[in-house]
Every structure is written in C-alpha cells, then in structure tokens.
Amino acid sequence: MTYAADSDPSAPTLRAADKFFLVPKVREPEYIPRLLEIVGTEIFRKH
Question: What pLDDT is recorded for position 42?
Fold first, then answer.
C-alpha cells in the first residue's frame, strides 16, 4: 500500500496513492504533529 501527503488537494501524487492525506504546509507548526498522527494511527496501528 502506498501513502501520500500533501498540502495541495490537487497534487497529482495524491491520486496515485492508495490512501492520501491533506497536511499543513511544511513551514506551518502543525505539519510535523500531523505527520506523526498519520504514521501513528494509519501505519503503525495496522501492523
């Protein structure tokens, strides 16, 4: 399974992934916490 994350909902990589997530822009303070949330709930929880 492939995952993608981007702040732009029209990013082409989002369409190619099995599952995608919209995240804040890299420079925003919420970016890293959101990535950690995605990894913790979507990836590690399933394995």
Answer: 78
